[in-house]
Amino acid sequence: MRPFGVLVHPCVVDDMPANFQQAVEPDLIARLQRGELAAFEMIYRRFERAAWTLALRLTGRPDIAHEVLQDSMLKAFERARQFRGDAPFAAWLRKLVVNEALMQLRHDRLHVIEVFDDTLAVDESPAPWMHADAATLERALNRLPDAARAVLWLYHVEGYTHVEIAGQFGRSVSFSKSQLARATKRLRELLQPQLQQVEVTPCTIGSTTTP
Amino acid sequence: MHDRLDHDSMKDDPRKYDPNDASLAAALRALPASAPARDAWPELASRMRRRRAARKAVWFTLPAAFAAGMALTLAWPHLHRPAVSPAFTPVATQASSHAATPAVSDIDTLQASSQQWQAWVQKLDLNGAPLDGRQLTQAVALQDRIGMVDLQLSAARNPSTTADLWQQRITLLQQLGLLHLQPYLVATHRPANNDHLISM
User: Fold this and answer.
1) Residue A34 region by backbone torsions, left for phi larger than 0, else alpha for psi between -120 and 50, else beta
2) Which whole number is the average pLDDT over A146-153?
3) Interchain pair B197, A168: CB under 8 A
4) pLDDT tens, B115-137?
């Protein structure tokens, strides 16, 4: 349920697909592997939004997401010959973006990783994200610590397992689990007061809401 | 690699159904996609072209570097002769050098060799990677020394001194050429920093 409609981000463009579920034709991949810039531009245009969105969700900052987009696409072009075709091209590209985003975070900020208690109590209260609009959820997501946000996104949206996340971060499985638990709890805390505020003064959300 | 597109690969991480977890995943996945504020393609294409050009330059310069290395190996004993300025050459040395005056053809050969080295250095300077601050300082110092040798050559009358100066000029040009090759030699030995992460 979204009580006030979806807040539209200025960068949102809805006329192009923005996920990694698109297939890439084998001849286009072959042209890319031969180093054809035109073929790569077609692939880039096809996955630009998906790669950007993933980079932005993982890093939480447009400037870093821009670097991730550039560097991962550059690697895709230069390493296209390493793509063997035993997985979809889109999945290979997505892996490059995830690796690049985590590498950027490692360089920049992931050395400050909060250590959480593994024994966080399970919160049985109603999930506030079910009633939050997209912009509120996005803001709350961006306020999470970097590692926690990246783990949350990789687990819930990208479908990574704790083992895979631990491998990506070079940490233990319990690290992944505790980051996820903490991220969920923090997200709940961040969304709860906003929802309460919304219930009291529903018209103060802002002028960018759409009916 | 795990792929969310088919959910079969969750076998190593069986997830218990938790309505809160499921609703969180659904809420996150429902977030609208966004696009970069500006078109990132022109910058990306420009970076790719620059890297291609640099890679081509490496392929051009590596054989040249090999040739230079071979030439340096052959010329090594001569390169370590003390550089003697003709202005301070002792009389006795000058007298002895008269005894083994190089033929005009020797000087012509040295001159031709110097021209070839100079052309090679100029090519490297035009097509090569930019030098860093320290290398640039060294390059300027070498160019100054070549200028000094040229000045001395313009005043040299003794064939032996002239030959010696041409040899010095060649040595300095070789050092300058190697300096221009250093960025490539460093780049070809630099390991990729995250290759281990790509496992597909």
Assistant:
1) alpha
2) 93
3) yes
4) 888 888 877 776 666 677 777 77
